[in-house]
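look at this one:
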Amino acid sequence: MSTTCLALALTWPRPALLLEADPRGVSALMTGWFQGARPYTTGLVELALSSLAPVDALQDVSSPFEGTQASFVVGLRTHTQAPTLRGQWEPIAQALAELDAEGTDVIVDAGALGYPGSPDPVLASADLTLLTVRSSLPAIGGARPWADVVVREDRWRHPGLLLVGENRPYASREVAGALGLPVLAQVAWDPDGAEYFSQGARQSASFHTSKYIRSLNAAVETLQAVRANHRALEVHA
């Protein structure tokens, strides 16, 4: 999931902010993209503890991905910091909405569901909230209890699935049927193509034409279209 979030942020056609919000204290950016070579300076904890208004604090704790129009906020360094965010997710969600109004789209990596400190208010207020799942039986089985909660409790405004690796072995319609949520976008199963995002690997000669990048570009277009449609419906409601 973290690889997909990062890939979406770096591929997004508008300015984008990637917010790492995994309450387990796992930073895919620090250990993967930056390969452990970037020192920690500021991140989610400093955002929560800042005396500034959340939207101003976001500017202080975010850093750019050099050479792109995307930026990021590093997540927790350990799960023991998660209580620091208690009561902070609501104002952070409001600040993210202000960024959106100013022309910056926000992609939140919420990590695994069900952990203390999970950013529930952010998920509930998002234009799209995607449960990322592979098409294998263990992955579908692990996702099903959470998909049931999402459907039963109507927690998210516009929930759906982001499917990684269709037909390994199940098709998108089978995954959607099993989980009771629509597949809104798909990304190909292509470990070599994804390695650039997951481990900061060098781009191969075929990187831009790889199966992963082609599917990623299609996913970005689809998600933008779905969000635009939802917003248009809300305006005319």
